[in-house]
DNA sequence: TAAAAATACTCCATAGGTATTTTAT
DNA sequence: ATAAAATACCTATGGAGTATTTTTA
């Protein structure tokens, strides 16, 4: 049993295909096939059932997959831990953030961080919650900024702050005249909702359901900026996080206007998240400190 | 970081010597040195300080040693688990027992076990408690029969039975006339005590201390049989476990005579022991069942 | 000087590559 | 016919060996 064999094995289990596993591992398909065959021979167990369409893990395969994952993660974490130096020499840090947070929160924090730790090589991964969780589990992403709720109990979180969701209106909208808005005043509005995997979309959608709003328009954009433009062009209104509104609202018709909701104000909870059972590098721990040291500006 | 490199590394850490590690791993010293050098280079950390006399782990080395042990054990256990078949095909089982138990308890249990599972390849390792514990931790021994107390919390135990320690006397000894003996009647006797690492020796010694017996004779033998012969030749008396006395005492002067102690009768607790955090093979679990199914005959 | 680790080189086992065949839809 | 895995065979990286030098008590 060798480490590269375990890596190939895990790749096959993940892709359910020898060929795809091979390209994932950057080796030729025959090489990978041979190593799997060798592994099976040495263990005295078939690991995969070769089916007409793809391959499937046997019982022994499932057993090995569990162990192999633990072992390979342990290897990786050990290497990370040993590479970690107090002076952050050659340190790398991969930060994840969901699209509805990234452009608003990341720049300031990254700036603070890089000023203090310029030697760290930073990469930013912007993706939806689910993919960021996968990335943290596989070790590609160290820390991610996202919003609750998170399902996976392998993920540890630190709450950073609660952020209100505001009603975003076209500048000429009738409701814009009021300072605050009651939920039943939105009864006949058409809502623009972020589509697909975006947690903000889910949240707005459930807000609509709770209040029995029926008129909606989906939006597959990954950007809040797009929604803001759609609002300006009069297609509908939406709930947007406070961080998305400009620092100094121009009020000249070039941006939507934002109003608070009275009653049970919808909020989202912003958290830093990381893998509970894997090694958190020094660079990552320092980033956590930066996040906590600089709470969300009002 | 490769598995063989971790194995070499652990060997060097254990032996504190490249040369001795090399022979332990059955490779030449230069090969092993090269692999360690490579490992150090890849991790970017010196793992050993090369001292005038031998080598010593650096901080990074200590960190790696912890991880490497866990990883290698995990690899080994995974292989064991996958090799384990319900029909016990090719199953091997290594049983340990301390010398003061082995000849009396093992034969009957091994017989029962082999009758039911003849396909298992058995090996028996007889050694003192401390060495058996090491052997279980390193994975050489699966299950050991020994007596409490055990210090190491990595070892799980199952109590099998309590066994009284009896006073063993030469056949012509005055105290032999009584059915039972009180502890203060032994005040002026000379005790023969198993030496060194034997837990029975320790136990008898502490019994002597508690009762303020002063006259002792050490015995470095590994066998109770030797002590019995010494008793017969009139050198002294001793406390011996009940299992050491013959099934049908001949009472013809060829064996010591045994008498119970009244009051707080000294006993030893016999346990089966195994490594709590490593994989216990099916063959080993079956042996445990045999041990528990056949409690010590009175 | 002796014992242990490091260097220098040589060799070969085997992981990995290319070309091809087999298998199943 | 096509797509994927297995087989055959070749290549070459790198682990391991032998011989030797360096280091330090």
Helix content of chain A: 25-40%
So what's the oligomer here?
A: homodimer
CATH class of the largest domain in chain A: Alpha Beta
Number of structural domains of chain A:
3
Largest sheet of chain A at a glance?
8 strands, mixed
Query: In the CATH scheme, what's the topology name of the largest domain in chain A?
Result: D-Maltodextrin-Binding Protein, domain 2
Q: Secondary-structure element sequence of chain A? A: HHHEEHEHEHEEEEHEHEEEH
Give the CATH superfamily of the largest domain in chain A. Periplasmic binding protein-like II
Name the CATH architecture of the largest domain in chain A.
3-Layer(aba) Sandwich
The total beta strand count of chain A reads: 12
% residues in beta strands of chain A: 15-25%
Largest interface (C-beta under 8 Å): A-B, 22 and 22 residues
Tell me, rounded to a whole number, the average pLDDT of chain A.
Answer: 88
Approximate shape of chain A = elongated
Radius of gyration of chain A, in Å, reads 24 Å
* Number of helical stretches of at least 4 residues of chain A: 9
Query: Could you list the spans of chain A in which at least 5 consecutive residues all have pLDDT below 50?
Result: none
Question: What would your notes on this structure say?
Answer:
- The structure is a homodimer of 298-residue chains.
- The first copy, chain A, is 40% helix and 22% strand.
- Chain A is of the alpha/beta class and 298 residues long.
- Chain A has three domains: 3-82, Orthogonal Bundle (Arc Repressor Mutant, subunit A), CATH 1.10.10.10; 92-160 and 269-293, 3-Layer(aba) Sandwich (D-Maltodextrin-Binding Protein, domain 2); 163-268, Periplasmic binding protein-like II (D-Maltodextrin-Binding Protein, domain 2, 3-Layer(aba) Sandwich).
- In chain A, helix 5 (102-116) links the parallel strand 3 and strand 4 (121-126).
- The mean pLDDT of chain A is 88.
- Chain A binds chain B through residues 1-3, 43-45, 60, 63-64, 67-68, 70-71, 74-75, 77-79, 81-83, 90, and chain B through 1-3, 43-45, 60, 63-64, 67-68, 70-71, 74-75, 77-79, 81-83, 90.
- Chain B binds a DNA duplex (25 and 25 nucleotides) through residues 4, 17-19, 27-35, 37-38, 50, 52-55.
């Amino acid at each position: 049993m060798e480490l590269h064999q375990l890596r190939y094995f895990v790749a096959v289990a993940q892709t359910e295909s020898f060929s795809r596993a091979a390209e994932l591992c950057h080796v030729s398909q025959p090489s990978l096939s041979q190593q799997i065959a060798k592994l099976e021979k040495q263990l005295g167990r078939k690991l995969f059932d070769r089916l007409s369409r793809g391959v499937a893990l046997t019982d022994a395969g499932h057993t090995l997959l569990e162990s192999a994952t633990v072992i390979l993660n342990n290897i990786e974490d050990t290497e990370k831990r040993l590479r970690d130096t107090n002076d952050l020499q050659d340190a790398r840090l991969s930060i994840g953030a969901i699209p509805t947070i990234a452009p608003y929160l990341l720049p300031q924090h990254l700036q603070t961080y890089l000023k203090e730790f310029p030697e760290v090589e930073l990469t930013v991964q912007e993706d939806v919650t689910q993919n960021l969780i996968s990335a943290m589990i596989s070790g590609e992403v160290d820390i991610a900024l996202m919003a609750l709720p998170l399902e996976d109990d392998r993920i540890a979180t630190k709450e950073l702050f609660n952020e209100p969701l505001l009603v975003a209106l076209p500048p000429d909208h009738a409701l814009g005249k009021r300072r605050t808005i009651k939920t039943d005043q939105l009864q006949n509005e058409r809502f623009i909702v972020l589509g697909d995997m975006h947690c903000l979309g889910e949240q707005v959608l459930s807000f609509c359901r709770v209040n029995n709003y029926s008129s909606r328009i989906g939006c597959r954009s990954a950007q809040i900026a797009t929604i803001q433009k759609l609002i300006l062009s009069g297609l509908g209104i939406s709930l947007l996080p406070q961080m998305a509104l400009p620092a100094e609202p121009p009020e000249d018709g070039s941006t939507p206007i934002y109003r608070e909701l009275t009653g049970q104000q919808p909020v989202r909870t912003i958290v830093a998240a990381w893998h509970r059972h894997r090694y958190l590098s020094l660079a990552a721990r320092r980033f956590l400190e930066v996040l906590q040291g600089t709470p969300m500006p009002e």
